[in-house]
Specification:
The complex is a heterodimer of chains A (285) and B (317). By secondary structure, chain A is of the alpha/beta class. Helices cover 32% and strands 29% of the residues of chain A. By secondary structure, chain B is mainly alpha-helical. Chain B has one domain. In chain B, 75% of the residues lie in helices and 0% in strands. The chains are: A alpha/beta (285), B mainly alpha (317). Chains A and B meet through helix 2, strand 5 and helix 3 of A and helix 1 and helix 5 of B.
Chain lengths: 285, 317
Amino acid sequence: MSTIITATNLSKKYGKQAALDGVNFTVEAGRIVGLIGPNGSGKTTTLKALLGLTQFDGELSVLGMDPRTERDALMNEVCFIADVAILPKWLKVKDAIDFVEGVHPRFDRSKAEKYLAITKLNPQMKVKAMSKGMVVQLHLALVMAIDAKLLVLDEPTLGLDILYRKQFYQNLLEDYFDENKTIVITTHQIEEVEHILTDLMFIQDGKISLAATMDEVGERFTEVMVEPPFIAAANALRPMTQRTVFGKAIMLFDGVSREQLANFGELRTPSVADLFVATMKGTYA
Amino acid sequence: MKTMKWLIKREMWEHKGMLVWAPTVIAALMGALALFAAFFDKNITINSDGSPSQMLSVTLEGKVRTQVIETMAQAYMAASAPVLLVLGFLVFFYCLGALHDERRDRSLLFWKSLPVSDSMTVLSKVLLACVVAPLITLGIGFVLSLVVLLTGSLLLLSHGTNVFGELLLTPDLYLTPLRMLGLLPLYVLWALPTVGWLLMVSSMARSKVFLWAVGTPLVAALLLLWADKAMHIGIDSAWFLSNIVSRLLLSVVPGAWLLFDRSLLSMEHTPHHMPMPQTIFGESWSTLGDANVWIGVAAGVAMIAVAIWMRRRREEG
């Protein structure tokens, strides 16, 4: 397995405010990585650094290239949707396809047309006349037809309704992703991406606070519905968080063996959202 | 090369209304006006008493006839002057928005997700402003001029003088548009400082691009004027105004070189001599002997380089 991204001591300051504070991580090929963090934690700055859209300190290698100096070459291999609704208003569907086909060596026109055929978009339509969801469909059709090694998505479904969101991730997984591609994605809608991620990265205050594969997350973190008699014993193992549902205490443990916890009550694998909340405790305090 | 072709197409899609339709509409209005004037103006068709039989007949013969035809063949492209003046405005506002609008509507992020370098993109905009836009306008101006020429000839015909045959045999009829086309490289060279300045401001300003582009040089000129008056430090603010400010802002007006180059002023003083196309052509090219144009080219290229650098480094604002 080859490494697609290596970040070493990545730092970035906006004035005195540190957006990234010595970030280290690696991303292997064929993974879908969720970069998850609260607002202002440095998610977007990290992605911008990966894409050569911002200057930074430290070392960063994306597909063996430095995004600061080799951006033009990098964009042949990398594709990104930086945000929803950034296609210019005057762009027509057919012109968009013609243009990307004209400038991108890895664009497959038939793929884009195949994808557009199942939407309501027609070739003469201008972005101006589209709903937000349709703009994303067009953008996605363009991006999915590009055979890029790395796809970076920054809040790709922001402001879309649930139907579009579900469809978006389904298309991404079924039509686009394969073992030669790598996807890095940020979103606040953790529940919706949870099942497609292979790797999880939490970022907090410009630092990576958790980086693990989903399998590791499942092994490391355990949620227990603690039966009342065992609460004191469970508390002694220092849970990350504790909440109460229907009178039962639910505790989240990091790195405590499952056999040990099974004595206290019913075990569950925590959702990424619960894990996120537990990890980010005190962020806005 | 292929990428450049698509970048130019891209600009055309975005600015079709401005680059094609605006000059076309103006040309159409001018043409309609000429036709209207020719056929309905009572001063020309002298039948104000309502009697067609009294239609005045003009017969041109001999030397006068030759002169009229020659003048028509040489000067008919003058009808395109309003359209060419509009070109100056179009190029000005095109450049002003070229690198700012894509940041404002955030489409920059989409363009930057494609393997197109910043220098390629900025150069496509320079090319559009300096070459493509003038060519389109010139084409429209040419059609307009032909319409006006045709109208004039028909008018003469209605008064009994057929000039069509000789007009078509006059070489100037064909040479005049070619001469104007031959001025295009000159336009590029003279326009570069303004194009560069506007693109640079467009790549830098967060908002109020027009104010920055026009205000900065004017305020600088005012400050110099004030400094000169107040402290007598011997700065020639008039020189600054005519050599820096006007070159930064007005060089995109076609034919502006005739104003910037002082050596040409003599031409205007020759009494009763209408500057003929070949004279203008020759005089225009002779402006290249002046340092003014080359300093402007160097400044323009430098400012375009800054614009490229800004587009590369600038985070979307």
